[in-house]
Structure formats: C-alpha cells, structure tokens
Write a structure and sequence with these properties.
Elements lengths: L1 H9 L1 H20 L2 H24 L10 H10 L20 H15 L2 H15 L2 H22 L9 E2 L1 H30 L2 H12 L2 H18 L3 H20 L2 H38 L3 E5 L6 H30 L6 H12 L6 H17 L5 H4 L11 E3 L4 E3 H15 L6 E3 L4 E2 L1 E4 L6 E4 L14 E2 L1 E2 L7 H5 L16 E5 L2 H5 L22 H6 L6 E2 L2 E2 L1 E7 L7 H6 L2 E12 L5 H24 L2 E2 L1 H24 E10 L7 E8 L14 H8 L19 H5 L4 H14 L7 H10 L1
Parallel strand pairs: 1-16, 2-14, 2-15, 5-10, 5-11, 11-14
Antiparallel strand pairs: 3-4, 6-9, 7-8, 12-13, 15-17, 17-18
Length: 751
C-alpha cells in the first residue's frame, strides 16, 4: 500500500496527463464518431490517388477516383447517409454558377443604394441618438463612482498604524493557501506535459476530431490526383471541401476565443521574427568584427558615449567568433585525416588539462613534439601508438592540399592546440572590469558543444549561466616587469597573455600621455609607463597565438580622447572607433497599439500609487486588487521592451587619427550587452572604502548663504583660480586705497 501511495505521489502529473488523454479519446469517440469515418475515407482516398499517380507514370489507364468533393455532394443529395463532420452541415450554394452569383450581386447592390434603404439608415441613426440621454447618465455615473472611489480609497487612516490592514492580510493568506498552489500546480503540469510530448498528443487528437488531419491527408490526395490529371478544377474542389468540412467547427467556437487564439498566434509569430531579427543583427556584428576590427582597437567618446558598452560587446562577439573559428579549424584538420580517430587525441588533451600539466598552446606543441620524436626515433613497431593509433602502413604520413605537404605530426599538433582552447569551459575574455558571460561549453558527450544563450535565456536557467571574464593582470603585458632588473618571477607570471580577447577600460588613464608621464624616467631601473615595454608586446601581439594562419588574440581599449594616449600606442592601433550616432530601436513589430495601452495603464498605476503614498500609511484590499490587475501590464511591457530592444550605433572607423574614416552600423542588443553584463561603476569599491570612513555628506555639507558668495565661501572651494585671484588682490591691496575694509580685514586675517 505504501509503494502505491509513493507511486501516485511521484507520478501525479503522469496520472493526470493520462486521464486527460483518455478523457479526450472517450468524449471524442462519443460526440465525434464521424471523424473516424472521415479519417478512414481520407486514407482510402490517399491510397487511390497514389495508385492512380503511379499508373499514370507508367502510361497505364487509371481507375476513377472518388474524391472528398464527390462524397460531400452525395451526402447533400442523400446518396450517402454518413456525415463526415459534426451534426450541423451548412448547405450553401456551390460557387461555380457564375450567373447565379451575378444575380445575387445585382440584388445586393440595388438593396444598398435605393431610397428605402437610406430611410432605414436615417431611422436607425435617430434610434441611436434617442439613447444619448442614457449615455450621458452613464458618463455621470462613472464620474460619480470615481469621486466616491477616490474619497474612500485615499482617505487618511490612523497615523499610528503602519503596514497592512487586517483584510489585506487575510486576503493574502487566502491567496497564498488556495490560488498560489493551484497556479504552481498548473504551471508545473504544463511544463511536464510539454516536456513529455503529452501536449502534442492533445493537439493531435483535437485536430483529428475536428477533421484537420483529414484535410491534410486530402491535400496530399488531391496533389497526387492533380499531378496525374492536371485538372485545375480539382484545386477548387479541394478548397471547397476543406471549407465545408471545417466550417461547422469554426462557427461553433465563440468569437472571443478566436480573437484570443489569433492574437496569441500573431504574438508568437512576431516574437519569433523579432528573435530572427536580433540574430541577424548579431550576425552583422560578427561580420563587422571579423572584417573591420584589427589586433589593437581604440574606442573613444564622451562620458556616457557607450565606450565601455562597445568594448564589452566587441569582446563578447569576438569570443563567440573565436569559438566558431576553432570549431571550423577542428573540422578542417579532421578532413585532412578522414580515417583517423581523433577521440584518443582529444581524451589525451583533456587528461593533460585536468591534471594541470599544460596551460597554453606552446606547451602542447612542445609536449607533442617530444612524443613524436620518441616515436620517430624508436626502433620498436609501436610508432602508431605514439601517434594515437594512426595506421602508417595503410595511409600516407602526410596530406597534400594541392600546393604543399602537411605532415601527420603537424596536423595532430594543430588539432590538439585548437581543441585545447575550444574545449575550455571558461571564458576567452580578459578584462580590467567584470563581464558576465552567457555561454557554455558542454562536455557530457563525445565532443564538446558550444551554446550561446543571449537571446534565449529564461528565468529558470539564468542562475545556471554564471561565468565571468578573467581578471586582467597588466603585468602580463609589461615585458620589463618580467625580464627587467626588478623582474617579477612569481609562479604563473608570463610576459604576455597567450590567447583570448582583452577588454581594457579607461586605458589612457593607466598608460598615460606626454604630460602625465613627465614624472617618470625612461632610463630608470624601476618599471614605469615609459619603459615597461607594453608597446613592444602590442606590436608583436599577432605573433603570440596564430592558429591556421589567423591570430587568436585581440585587444579593445576605451578612452575619452585619442589625444590623451601616447603616440606610440596610436601608431600601432589597427582601428580608431567612435560612436557618432545612437538610435533606440525595437525588433518587435506591431508594438505601437499595445505599447499605448500598457503605457496608459502604467501611468494610471503610477498616479494611483503616488496618491496612495500621499494619503494613506496602510495598504488595503482595494490597493492589493488594483495592483494585481495592473502589475501584469507593466511587467509584460517591461519584459517585452527589455528583451527585443537594441541600440543602433553609427560607428566612425579610422585607420589613423588623421584619416577620414568610414561609417558602419553596429547594434547593441539589450539581451546581450545590457543584460547585467557589466557595471559602469567598476571602480566603485575603491571609492566605497573612502566613503565608508567619511563624516561628510549631503546632509551635513554647508550651503551658500545667498546668491553672492562671501569671501569665506569662495575660499572654502579651494579653487586654484580663486587662490590666484586672492594673491593678485593681496599684492594690489597696498597700492589700491579704495579696497574695502572687509577685504583688508580678510587679507590681514589670512596673513
């Protein structure tokens, strides 16, 4: 008995799903038995039409095929008694008698445009106007109710009672114990039937009972019949038959349900098209990064000019490009050795990575070179084992690509280097501010799978994608810090980052310019911005990691003005980028009407909320119900706007600062760039430390006493300009006898 109870408890959704499935089958069999007759006839019709089609191919005489149209005609004439649809069958006239149609049109035209009709229209107008008094009364009633509602809803309560009313708490408890569990159960049940294909079964059965499946079968039957006969009238017969069979179902469904279904269908289609639009824009961004961005890319602009947003999106996009290019490289090298099982090599690289024996592509190359040297110099016959099972006796030890030979050794080494980075489950991005990455590499199968979820991420999976960019250690691109007299040889330190994308925010503040770097000495033994060798590393950056003739390391720097950067960095930059125009866009079509409705409800909600805060100190049942009815509109509008909106940037890209440049379009999608991907106050923790110990603030800081600041107030500004003026006037005081007594006293006091 206990096992049965546990089974029912664990399979509650399964039992309910099966019960609904059986219920649909039973009710459908009772009330729509003719659907079985129709589906049987459709299969027979399909079989006969296919048979007739193949007979026509072999130039054989085919039998006459009994179509759905013939069946409907026989039913209406009483020849066949079995009804192919529901009980109510519309007996409308066949649309093939042109003379009858013309006669009907003439009669309708004369009915509409005669004197009697106009008199009737005028009478109808007078009848409508006779109800104007009722309309006025309704308007007065609505305004009265509004006044009464306002007087009750916004009346002040006891100021000593703060929080919620007793009725509100009772309603909330009732909702939590009754409606909330039901809502959760329905939501989980829907996810269960959707995941286990029950929903598809329900839809199929419903379509079966309303003859939609029969119509689909009839479509193929008419197609084969038309292909063998080329009788154009068959197309009209199929259209008429389909309308005839589905018409009773259509008119039996209430209009409001059709409106809801049509809206849901249109909404689903436009959201799908909006996602396609966003993906197309993402593809354009990837094309721009591949074609027009180089190794070193400088982005400048005013404060709030989307500089950090741009380099963040550039880094995310370039990281995705690297994943795809690595996968293409892996396929390319596999195509060189189509009979070689690369799984052994992949497992070997996974093992070395897991054990911490390799950290970059150079170490992989060195390790495999030693392994293959041992194999080539070995006197044993185990050479193929050292080459991970490659059969040298059967296949060649090289690949000829049409212009030069590529050895098996070279192919395996290059494949291993590409696989090492492609299979990495961490981010490819290094940055001096944190970047949230919404992508994943899954290694639960035989080969890693890369997934990017920027535009398909839902609330349930949000916490699953919690990976961030690597911390950028700038000493790793300062070669003197590693090789100079004051070198730092800590374990793990290198002279350069080996692979990836570097996002370097506020770069000019760190690298400095000719003015800020005057305090440093170029010949100093200590590392400083003048002699740290960063520019040397950047000049040789493309030589660090090149896979299949493409560099896999790229750098993005943002700054407020190109002129603040030393010329040695501007000279080695590949692209200077500036956003000259920003436009807000939305990929979702037909959004204006619902936006107007939602914004109107949001304005009403905001107005009521403000009045509620002004008039009352407790939240009651009416406010709770009002929130329930209006919050869904605000949530729907905000989610729609956030998910499908993007910013269209017009970028000016120049090769050098003096170049004219060329304009390109780049898009910053909310779902990718502004989905909590980074923080604009990345250095807040530095200021938080200072502010936490401060005893000054907006409550305690002094204000001006009038529009004319006093001398004490001017001095408290600690302005360099004011200090120079004070010194100037002090020198002039001895010569100028017209100086006011107050100014003299002030300067005497300062002395």
């Amino acid at each position: 008995m206990k096992s049965i109870v546990n089974f029912i408890k664990n399979k509650k959704y399964l039992l309910l799903a099966i019960f609904i499935l059986l219920l649909i089958l039973i009710l459908g069999s009772i009330f729509s038995f003719s659907s079985f007759y129709r589906i049987g006839f459709s299969f027979l019709f399909l079989f006969e039409s296919i048979k007739n089609y193949f007979l026509s191919i072999f130039k054989m005489d085919g039998n006459s095929v009994y179509t759905t149209f013939d069946l409907i005609v026989d039913i209406n004439l009483g020849v066949v008694s079995s009804s192919p649809v529901l009980d109510a069958i519309p007996k409308f006239i066949l649309p093939f008698n042109i003379e009858l149609i013309i006669e009907y049109l003439k009669n309708w035209i004369f009915i509409v445009f005669n004197l009697e009709s106009f008199i009737n229209y005028f009478g109808l107008l007078l009848n409508v106007l006779s109800y104007a008094n009722l309309l006025v009364l309704l308007i007065i009633l609505i305004f009265s109710l509004k006044l009464i509602f306002s007087s009750i809803f916004f009346n002040p309560l006891d100021i000593s009672k703060i929080g919620y009313t007793n009725n509100y708490l009772k309603l909330e408890r009732f909702n939590y114990k009754v409606f909330h569990p039901v809502f959760i159960f329905i939501k989980e049940f829907y996810e269960y039937i959707n995941d286990h294909k029950f929903l598809t079964s329900y839809i199929f059965l419903i379509l079966f009972y309303i003859n939609v499946i029969s119509i689909i079968l009839d479509f193929f039957s008419y197609f084969f019949l038309f292909s063998s006969s080329f009788d154009l009238i068959l197309i009209l017969k199929f259209i008429f038959s389909s309308i005839y069979l589905i018409y009773p179902i259509l008119i039996s469904v209430p209009l409001i349900i059709w409106i809801v279904l049509i809206y849901l269908y249109i909404d689903k289609r436009r959201k799908a098209r909006a996602l396609v639009r966003l993906l197309r824009l993402e593809g354009n961004n990837m094309d721009f990064c591949s074609r027009h961005l180089g190794m070193i890319n400088l982005v400048d602009g005013l404060m709030g000019g989307y500089k950090t947003s741009m380099i963040t999106d550039f880094a995310l996009t370039q990281s995705k490009i690297y994943r795809y290019e690595l996968e293409d490289n892996l396929y390319l090298y596999r195509s060189y050795l189509p009979y070689f099982n690369f799984v052994r090599l992949e497992k070997y690289i996974d093992y070395l990575s897991f054990k911490g024996m390799i950290y970059n592509h150079a170490q992989i190359e060195e390790l495999l070179e030693k392994r293959f040297n041992v194999a080539d110099n070995s006197l044993t016959n185990r050479k193929n084992e050292y080459y991970f099972g490659y059969k040298f006796k059967i296949y060649k030890d090289y690949y000829w690509n049409g212009i030069y030979k590529i050895s098996v050794r070279k192919i395996l080494i290059e494949y291993a280097k590409n696989y090492f980075y492609f299979a990495c489950q961490k981010s490819f991005i290094y940055s001096n501010y944190a970047i949230h990455i919404v992508e994943e590499v899954i290694k639960d199968g035989y080969f890693p799978k890369y997934i990017s979820q920027y535009f398909f991420l839902n609330e349930k999976d949000y916490d699953h994608f919690k990976s961030y960019s690597h911390k950028l250690d700038l000493n790793e691109i300062r070669i003197k810090k590693y090789y100079g007299k004051n070198k730092d040889n800590d374990k793990g330190k290198t002279a350069v980052i080996s692979f990836g994308v570097i996002a370097y925010s506020e770069a000019e503040k760190d690298l400095g310019n000719q003015n800020t770097n005057k305090i440093y000495d170029l010949k100093s033994d200590e590392t400083n911005p003048l002699n740290d060798g960063t520019d040397l590393i950047l000049k040789m950056l493309r030589h660090v990691c090149t896979l299949n003739y493409k560099p896999f390391i790229k750098m993005f720097l943002d700054m407020q003005r190109f002129g603040d950067l030393a010329s040695k960095y501007k000279d080695i930059s590949t692209a200077l980028i500036r956003a000259i125009k920003v436009e807000d866009k939305c990929a979702l079509k037909f959004r204006d009407l619902e936006a107007i409705i939602c914004r109107a409800i949001i304005r009403l909600r905001k107005k009521v909320d403000i009045r509620m805060k002004e008039a009352r100190n407790r939240i009651g049942v009416i406010y709770y119900l009002f929130n329930k009815m209006t919050y869904c509109f605000e949530r729907y509008y905000n989610r729609l706007t956030n998910k499908y909106s993007y910013k269209k940037l017009t970028l000016l890209v120049k090769g050098r600062e003096e170049d004219v440049g060329e304009e390109f379009i780049y898009s910053l999608m909310n779902a990718k760039t502004f989905a909590n991907s980074y923080r604009t106050d990345s250095h807040y923790s530095l200021f938080k430390e200072v502010l936490s110990e401060s005893s000054k603030g907006i409550y305690s800081d002094d204000t001006y006493s009038s529009l004319d600041p006093s001398l004490d107030e001017l001095e408290e500004q600690h302005s360099y300009f004011n200090d120079r003026l004070f010194k100037l006037f002090r020198k002039k005081k001895l010569k100028d006898k017209n100086v006011s007594k107050k100014m003299e006293d002030f300067f005497d006091e300062k002395e």
